[in-house]
# Entry
Amino acid sequence: MVIATGLVGAGAIPTPSGVTNSSSLHSTDRIIGWVSQPNDRGSIDIIWTCLFTIFICTYTVLCLNVPSEDETNFDIICRRIFWMALAIIGPEFVLTYASGQWGTAKESVQLFHAAGHPQWSLRHGFFADMGGFLLVPKDGRPFRITSKHLHYLVQRKYLEYPDVTQAELWDKSKQDTISKVITCFQIGYLVLQCLGRAIQGLAITTLELSALAIVVCTILTSICWLRKPLDVRTPIKLYMDSPIETVLCEAGDAAAKPFRQTPLDFVDDLCPSWGLNVQSFMKMPTTPYERPITRFGNDRFPNLKGYQEAFLCFATLAYAAIHLAGWNFTFPTKVELILWRVSSMFLFGNTVLFWVCETTSSWHRNGRWRRLFYRVYDPSKLEDVEKARLAREDRRVPKVLPLKWEFWSIFPLAVTYGAARGYLIAEVFLGLRSLEPSTYVNVNWSAFIPHV
# Structure
């Protein structure tokens, strides 16, 4: 049974449950209004499947950093809701932060293995960089340390290597197996529905297409966070016999400046990140306000190299490209079709331009343009340029980010991207008011079963 306000097009058309030939499914008529579901797909089927899949994906994928010890459950829940909303509005941003954490965890494994600690794993790296270790110096206030901080202290004998096994770290993780199973089932169901409908020529809604894009991003984010402990609430305390002042004095000029985040800023200043760099650049308040910082933010930008950077580039472009798959979808009006195409092109084009700008600025920050110039025009000075770069890295000169030209070149991309993404989100719901008849026809799964 179909409950609808009317049909648009030339001539009447059978309802989905009464369709008898394929030409009816692909006519120019549209069904307007709410469709019930006794025999076929109904409006509630489409909406519930997509929204529940999006919710369960964004809920289970999040592996946020360890909160401050004085934070309440309400604070933690609010932060989770914020990141769930971000994972829906811009899932590629969460993927970007997750890939950055994956990159620093892999870097920590290389550092500790080179230092003679082969038992250090990706899980240890994630745990340290999410604020899982709390340094308690002989003097001063306790503060969180990253894997780089810990490596520095262990290498210089200020701390013993923490004898924490992978099993102990995983025991602190609160992985919900039931939620993971439900998530896998929902993802599989949505993907199979979209594939089956595409193969049999049945209409797919823009809501299903957007949900599929979020699911793809969520899967890739889960890959990045595969070894990260989930929902850890309390850090492991590491007691240091030496005063923090001793560490700073023996570090020399590198630690002479007042710290901004932790006393070990000269080793790792937790930058660049959205909160510590971009918000500060825009004169916006940055939380947490206490110093030394009481928790690590979840918004640190990635510093990826090689295949990791290629992975992130491919993933973000794939997310944007999925929206282009709706290029030939039918819409209630011609204007909506044009706006969808324009917004999808902006989404993909801005992602491409962002990677061009980001690569250009990254090469500038790392001195690659300078090295390329001397390699081409004056190779004799290349060795001196490389020595100067290594000297700056040894001094751990903090990066002042974002650069003004970098910020203002990306700002227009961010504004147009936000406008395009906003329209796409609105259209996935607006478009449900008028759909093709074949939208409400179920996939004939028996057609995929080989038979004689």
Notes: The longest strand covers residues 133-136. The CA atoms of residues 134 and 410 lie 36 Å apart.
